[in-house]
Amino acid sequence: MYASREDIGYDFGDDSKVRSKPIKPNPNIDGGWAWMIVLSSFLVHILIMGSQMALGILNMEWLEEFNQSRGLTAWVSSLSMGITLIVGPFIGLFISMCGCRTTAIIGGMLNALGWILSAYASNVHFLFLTFGVTAGIGSGMVYLPAVVMVGQYFQKRRALAQGLSTTGTGFGAFLMTALLKYLCIEFGWRNAMFIQGAISLNLCVCGALMRPLSPKELREKYVVRSDSEENRAKALSHSAETIKSNGALGEEPEKKEEAANEEVFGSVQHTEIGGKSGSGRSMYGLRLFKTVSQLTLTVRKGFALWYSSYFGAASLFTNRVFVAFVIWALFAYSSFVIPFIHLPEIVKQYNLSRQDNVFPLTSIIAIVHIFGKVILGIISDLPCISTWNVFLMANFTLVTCILTLPLMQTYVGLAVVCALIGFSSGYFSLMPVVTEDLVGTKHLANAYGIIICANGISALFGPPFAGWIYDITQKYDFSFYIAGLLYMVGIIFLLIQPCIQKKQPREKSTEEAQV
């Protein structure tokens, strides 16, 4: 059934005044270089997310090397995964100032440095700093630009493009697991981490492929649309419209500031032309002043956009649906991570190790997860299908599986539930699409940074919380039940807020009629 964006509190305005004359479509939007961006993002997901899914191999090596408790050693992996996502809002600041390409290249070098320094670790606490923090921050600086750039280059096939790029997580889980296992056997875990650090330098190449769109190309992305696509683009929630209409993010102050700076730069150029007979030192000083002024302007504009998005009058948090989205993200990601961490122990308790060794349940999740991302992306791009409804249905399926998984005590039953978990968790590819629909492309970097930050908090504390519940009850059942119930609370927030958004305009019109 078709469901318009009104289902989540969107309003359609009169677009007769805002239509632009049709122009020649940009070949790089939904085609051309856009597919190179998808390839870059795909490789980023293999090298970052795939490596993090394979950290169990290194975790076993660290346990043997440092003879620390399982809980303390597990924090190395948790820190790396959590910090990768938690730093999202701060990476949004780098993107606003430097752009996605520069941010990703710096992040690639930082990630490689973290892997290489970890090869010289003398204890677990050393790994906290080098691998958990350094490599984690570097991963975050590459991951967020990889997602944002796909959103910028695609309009008609956004969900499919995000689905294809994020399948790198599943492929990476297989490739990196096999690679790290081989390297650890042949060269030892220290040399394996050193080699992995060298491989991670390819993230800089992925960042170099993230060619930014010019302002003209960004305008063309929104001008060339059919009538239905124009409606979808303007189908923002009431609070999202508040964000765009606020003066804090308005264009007038920016234009005035740009005009003033152009006058300064123009006067500098005039001085350079007229002062050719002057000394070379003064000319060098003028050029240096011009460069510093341009850099200062870029930093000021980037920081102003970042600050106003989070703390200003046009804060993203004035969008109630977006706030509900953040609350949902705080509970959602742990429900996907917990099975990966604790399924092997559950299999051992149920005496299913022989079947699991033949075809591990975590591998079933990873394989079906790849197909889930692509299929859900294709379905969401259909003109008669609402991305929001597909997103909600996938969430309902996943939370149902989390709640029923403890009831399955046979390998076949667990395999079926794990397959459904893998497929329904493919909604991760829809998260950037839903976020962009809520806040627009201009605020996508900051908004998605907040979302993955919430996911990072969930990934950081979810598995240790599940282990703590097991220590108390000596069963994993309650860990899944509590995680599922918290997940359901997040879904309820997603359902309630759009209803409130739809109800408010009606109440306002009733009050005006009475007056």
UniProtKB/TrEMBL annotation:
Membrane topology reported for the UniProt record: Multi-pass membrane protein
Gene Ontology terms, MF aspect: monocarboxylic acid transmembrane transporter activity
Keyword annotations of the record: Membrane, Transmembrane, Transmembrane helix
InterPro entries: MFS (IPR011701), MFS_dom (IPR020846), MFS_trans_sf (IPR036259), Proton-linked_MCT (IPR050327)
GO cellular component: membrane
Keyword rRNA-binding belongs to the record: no
CDD domains: MFS_MCT14
The Major facilitator superfamily (MFS) profile domain, residue ranges: 37-502
Cell compartment(s), UniProt: Membrane
Residues spanning the membrane: 33-55, 75-95, 102-120, 126-148, 160-180, 192-210, 321-341, 361-379, 386-405, 411-434, 446-466, 478-496
Record bears the keyword Transmembrane: yes
Stated name of the protein: MOT14 protein
Organism from which the protein derives: Alaudala cheleensis
